[in-house]
C-alpha cells in the first residue's frame, strides 16, 4: 500500500512538473540547497578572516588597566610570538560551528522575508510588477538577522569567551560543548543570552543594511550599467565583491558600538576569566554591568567615547572581505547546486 501511494505521489509531481508547477519534493530540495549554500558561504568567509576576528574581540574586551594589545599589527605579532600559528585561529572552530547554521538561516530567512514583504507590498499597491524598495529590503534583512542571531546566540556567547583565552588563562574551555555546559552549570541558562539585547538592536542596522545596500547597489548597476560593468544582464564576481564590500563597510560602521557592548556583557560573571579580561595583579578590576545602558555609560565614563570603537580597524579589514566573500560564495554555490531563486526577486 505504501509503495502504491509513493508511485501515485511521484506521478502527481511529474504531472505538476509537466505543467510548470513545482511539487513539494522540488520545494524541499530547493530549501535544502539554499541552506547549504548559506552555510558554505558563512564557513568560507569567516575562516578567511579568522585571525582578524580574534584580534577584534581581544581589543574589545581587554582590561583598560592592563593593555596587552595596542593595535592590529602589534596584536597579531604578539599572538604569533606567544601562541604560534594556531593561536591566530583560536575559536574559529566554534565560530564556524555557529556561523554555518547562522548564515544558512540568515540567507534563507532573508529570501522568505523578501518574498512575503514583496507579496504584501504588491497587494497593498495593487501593482503586481512592483519591486522591493531599499527600505523594504532593510526590513527583510533585519528580520533575517534577528532570527538567525537568536537561534545561534548561545554559541556566539561561548565563542567570544573561547576566543579570548590564552595559554596563561587560569581556566580553559576545552571546546564549544564544554563551554556551554560549564556556563550552564556555573552561571545558569540566562547567562547564555548575556548581551542579547544589544545584539538584537545592532543586528537590525547591520544585517539590514548589508542586504539592502548589496541588493540595491546590484540593481542600480544592472539598470544603469556604468562603465560597462554589466555583461549579459549579469555582474562579474569582482563587481559583486565590490558591492558586498561596500555593504559590509556601511553596516558594520553603524552597528559597531553595540558589538563592543555585547562582547563586554558576555564576559560578565565569568569565573576564572582570561587575564586579558580581568587584568593582572593590582590592576585586576572585575567587570560589572547591570545592563546595556549601564555598559554604555561605564565604558564611555572610564575609557572615553573612543572605547566604543575599539577593534574597529581589524573589524573593518575583516568585515569588508568577509561580507563580500559571503554574498558571492552564496550566489556561486546556489548556481552550482542549480537553485533558481535569487537572493531577492
Would you kindly provide a written description of the structure presented here, covering whatever features stand out?
With about 350 residues, the chain is an all-alpha fold. Helix content is about 70%, strand content about 0%. It contains twelve helices and two strands, in the order H-H-H-H-H-H-H-H-E-E-H-H-H-H. It has a two-stranded antiparallel ribbon. Helix 3 packs antiparallel against helix 12 (about 310-335).
**How many extended strands?**
2
Roughly what fraction of the amino acids lie in strands? under 5%
| Count of DSSP-assigned helices | 12
Rg calc: 23 Å
Strands ordered across the widest β-sheet: 1-2
H/E topology pattern: HHHHHHHHEEHHHH
Rounded average pLDDT? 81
Q: Could you estimate the helical fraction of the residues in percent? A: over 70%
Q: What's the shape? A: globular
State the major sheet. Answer: 2 strands, antiparallel
| Overall SS class | mainly alpha
Family: Belongs to the mitochondrial carrier (TC 2.A.29) family.
Membrane topology: Multi-pass membrane protein
InterPro entries: MCP (IPR002067), MCP_dom_sf (IPR023395), MCP_transmembrane (IPR018108)
Solcar repeats: 29-116, 132-220, 235-336
Name its key features.
MCP_transmembrane, mitochondrion inner membrane, 345 residues, MCP_dom_sf, 12 helices, transport, mainly alpha, globular, transmembrane
Briefly say what this structure is:
72% of the residues lie in helices and 1% in strands.
